[in-house]
Design brief:
Low-confidence stretches: 1-56, 451-457
Oligomer: single chain
Number of helices: 14
Helix content: 25-40%
CATH architecture: Alpha/alpha barrel
Number of strands: 20
Radius of gyration: 21 Å
CATH superfamily: Glycoside hydrolase 144 (GH144)
Largest sheet: 4 strands, antiparallel
CATH class: Mainly Alpha
Distance between the termini: 14 Å
Shape: globular
Structural class: alpha+beta
Number of domains: 1
CATH topology: Glycosyltransferase
Strand content: 5-15%
Length: about 450
């Protein structure tokens, strides 16, 4: 930044520093040593930081993990891929509210979906897919909508909203005047683009501040853990701890950007266990669904997002490598291209978790109710693009090569391709298209958080 730019920016500096306890990045320095012995994957949550036989949870670090690649300009084909992804957001933005549908033509969105839109918008601007005039108009309208959302219990955003009217709705998009609760994980993800906006786009910083100033952020946490709210009956709701290994730490990093105490949620070792998957000690959450009701899915997405947005810390870099390597190893042993995560699908039950490991079983595919859905296992487009942006290996090139045909040029990227039969999974969603854009923006300019407009690759 030259002197003229510094002078122009000076009026924003005090505001940015003050913005909601700083909105700054937190540095996570993790100190771990020695590998764990083989441990029972079915161990239930029995205290924190301790394994069987009162052995402290420890992490060993792999040699030879590739460094994050340096930014480079996109080639012509990659730019076409980015334009396909942006087509989704062009098609699904509501002019009345400025918000975007979670699924093609489905007029509702969660806070996670809305975060995906804002990150897609930031990525599109970085890639110069849209002019800054359009970026500013879209961002201003979206932030204005977020600033007038009705809040659950007058405290925090509801789990879902109509993108056409901004009214609170349930997951079936039916109006619910009192709401259905809030998700700490989803709200935390929204803090990622709001942080980027505050630091990199000061013209919109005040609007971002006003959005968060309405929220009672302290209600997201309890004793250092993330807590959401679930409505049980009319007028009654429960506070529930949210997050399992991977998603819990990713969301906690985002929540820490606004100064929340998330020390327990940030602790990778607190509920850590390992399962042997093709000789790889795969990290997973030791809290088992049979005891807690919450499934301990190991999927690609939290590690991909952590890499694309934060650039990984020491532990997430290690865990991401193991999660990725298990999928590559499955391809080597079976010949099946593997890039798994949770995804919408184009048939009932319409959403499944394609996992590397969950509930004591490798390569488990489950519905949201925990029912077997192995016939619907698929290669995920967003996982393929994300892993390729972060590693750019021969294997990730194969993944992207397989994913490259899975789109409608007028509607956006499909969610993936079914393993059984090889048919496209033609669900078209904000999340898939946003992660494609984030991945391509990462290739061009590096991690999304703490980016400066003046930086060039």
């Amino acid at each position: 930044m030259n002197n003229e730019n510094l002078l122009r920016a000076r009026s924003n500096i005090v505001f940015i520093i003050a913005l909601l306890v700083g909105f700054g990045l937190v540095m996570w320095v993790e100190k771990h040593s020695v590998a764990p012995p083989g441990q029972d994957a079915a161990v239930l949550a029995q205290g924190r930081n301790w394994g069987p036989g009162n052995v402290p949870r420890t992490i060993t670090y792999s040699q030879g993990i590739p460094a994050l690649p340096e930014p480079r300009p996109l080639d012509a084909r990659e730019r076409e891929w980015a334009q396909v992804a942006w087509k989704y957001f062009d098609n699904n933005t509501h002019p009345e509210t400025g918000l975007v549908n979670s699924v093609d033509k489905y007029e509702a969105a969660t806070m996670w979906d809305t975060a995906s839109y804002l990150l897609a918008l930031i990525s599109a601007a970085r890639l110069e897919l849209i002019p800054m005039k359009e970026f500013d108009a879209r961002m201003a309208k979206a932030l204005a909508a977020l600033g007038r959302l009705p809040l659950f219990d007058a405290a925090l955003p509801n789990k879902s909203y109509s993108t056409a009217t901004l009214s609170m709705v349930d997951y079936a998009n039916k109006p619910t005047p009192n709401g259905i609760g809030w998700s700490a994980i989803d709200i935390s993800r929204l803090l990622v683009p709001l942080n980027i906006i505050a630091w990199s786009y000061p013209a919109h910083g005040e609007s971002a501040r006003r959005v968060i100033a309405r929220w009672n952020m302290q209600r997201l946490t309890h004793e250092g853990a993330l807590f959401g709210v679930h409505v049980v009956n009319a007028g009654e709701f429960q506070h529930l701890q949210e997050g399992r290994l991977g998603y819990e730490q990713y969301a906690a990093k985002a929540a820490s950007l606004v100064g929340l105490d998330v020390a327990e949620a940030l602790d990778y070792r607190a509920q850590l266990d390992y399962a042997d998957v093709y000789g790889i000690q795969l990290p997973h959450d030791r809290r088992d669904a049979r005891a807690t009701g919450g499934h301990n899915y190991v999927v690609s997405e939290p590690y991909v997002l952590d890499g694309l947005e934060f650039g990984w810390d020491r532990v997430s870099r290690e865990f991401a490598w193991r999660v990725y390597r298990a999928q590559e190893e499955r391809y080597r042993r079976t010949g099946t291209l593997t890039a798994v995560t949770e995804d919408h699908i184009d048939r009932a039950p319409y959403f499944v978790y394609n996992t590397v490991y969950s509930n004591g079983k490798a390569w488990n595919t489950l519905t949201e109710k925990g029912e077997d859905a192995s016939k619907l296992r698929s290669l995920s487009v967003k996982a393929a693009f994300g892993w390729h942006a972060l590693y750019r290996s021969d294997y990730t090139a194969k993944l992207v090569g397989a994913a490259a045909k899975l789109f409608d040029p007028e509607r956006g990227w499909y969610a993936g391709m079914y393993e059984e039969g090889g048919a496209p999974n033609k669900a078209i969603t904000a999340n898939t298209n946003a992660v494609v854009l984030e991945s391509l923006a990462f290739i061009a300019s590096g991690r999304l958080v703490n980016y400066r407009q003046e930086e060039k690759p």
